[in-house]
Amino acid sequence: MKDAEIPSNEDEIIESKQIIGKQIWRIVPYVKSYWRRATLGISTNAFARAFDLIPFVAMGYAVDYYQSGNLTGPNFLVDLISENPELGYGALIFSCFTMLAIFQGTSDYCWQSLGYKVQHDLRMDATRNLVKMEVSYYDLRQTGALMSILSSDVNQLEDVISDSSTSIIRLIITTLTAFLILFLMSWKLVIVLFGPLLLIFPLV
After folding, report:
1. Contacts of 8 (CB under 8 A, 6+ apart)
2. How many CA atoms lie within 13 Å of 102's alpha carbon, on the beta-carbon side?
3. Per the domain annotation, does 1 fall within a domain?
4. How far apart, in whole angstroms, are the C-alpha atoms of residue 105 and residue 110?
């Protein structure tokens, strides 16, 4: 694993903070060391998003049933709850929220622990680099600036892993899951809802 680099002077420290967005990819090698945990976090987040959306679809089917008296939805679902639709819809919604809690909790644990492990590795690499520096290096720099790198800056990177990355993944997975559910319900509805996006994206 490549050691974390310490800026050699205050100008470089300021510059590194200004281009942090361009260099954020350098944290990827640290995440690769825990790829199993990251993969589990992504997969459980995907399942959590699916179980987050399914109850609303089930509620829609339940409303249709109480209004028309006819069961709607996929054939396997109709066959499963045909004997007692009221209990079936209730059990489906309850089980979805239960699975949502389980998968979301697992995902949060994976990403939080991954962030802490990467934070630890970054601090260890940065400390090793500081130890290798010449004495003159410390004569030209304030202790507070170095401590800021080891504390607040590394904490911000941990926040990127545990918060920002999960938000991006959640947005992507939620959009794809919603697209899939709507497509299974009605492809015409997908065109109406997602069609305008094809016109919006080129303008962004």
Report:
1. 137
2. 8
3. no
4. 9
Torsion (CA) 29, 35, 40, 43 in degrees, nearest 10 = 70
Q: Is residue 2 part of a domain?
A: no
Task: For the chain, give the percent of residues with pLDDT over 70.
Answer: 82
The tokens for 103 are: 């998968």
Domain housing 41: 10-203
In a domain, 26, yes or no: yes
**Which pLDDT does position 85 carry in this prediction?**
85
Residue closest to 153 by CA, chosen among 45, 23, 2, 60: 23
Compare 181 and 61 and report the one with higher pLDDT.
Answer: 61
* Residue 143 burial by Cβ neighbours in a 10 Å radius (0-12, 13-18, 19+): exposed
How many domains are there within the chain? 1
Contact 58, 89 (CB under 8 A): yes
pTM: 0.68
The CATH number given to whatever domain includes residue 44 is: 1.20.1560.10
> Which DSSP symbol is given to 160?
I
